[in-house]
Each structure stands twice: as C-alpha cells, then as structure tokens.
Amino acid sequence: MIIFWRGLGFLIPIIVIVIQLITFMLGRFITNDMYGRDIGSIPIVAGWVISAVLLWIIGRKLNCKVSAPEQGLPDGISSTEKPKSVQTWQHTLFWIPFEYWSIACVGFAVSFSLS
To answer: Which of 3, 13, 52, 91 could be cross-linked to 7 through a Cys-Cys bond (beta carbons 3.0 to 4.6 Å apart)?
Structure first.
C-alpha cells in the first residue's frame, strides 16, 4: 500500500498507534489482565478519543495561517494595507488535512463503544 503524505502527515498513524498501545497497556495494568482478554472496549475508546484530541490540537497548530506582517512584507506593499492571511504549510495524509483525521478517530471511538 502506498501512503501519500505532505509535510508532517506521516505522524498521524504513528500518533494513533502509540496512543492505542499506551491505553491498551494501561488497561491491562489497571485490570491486572495478563493477556488482555477481559479489559473490554474502554481503553480502545479512550485511545481513539485521546488520539482525536491530540490530532486536532497538533493539526491546528501545524496548519495555522500566518498573516503577512509576521513573515515580513514583500517589496511594493506598504504597511498601511490590510495584511492577508497566507497558508504557510499544509500537513496532510492521503490529501486530508492533519486536524480532520480527528473526526475519523471520533468515528472509530463511537463504533467501538457501540459494539
């Protein structure tokens, strides 16, 4: 399978996998279940929700718009003109922006909680 990303989009599956492993291991530790059979879906749902929150926060920070004065004004533009927002960088995975993957994580959390 070919994975298409732009910028830091490759971090999306890494963040989700690491959070899922951490919550699964915490669920095993809390319930003292050595094989992970009886921990239920609570750690999995918690992992998806935590991943969603992290992806939204990180994505909003990475894909923020910067106004022109912060970047320095190019020649020919006076400082009295209204600054325009400029997209500095786009971080995507499969052409979907970083922060929108949090919606998919919430969808997975809902599907696991209903099953």
So the answer is: 91
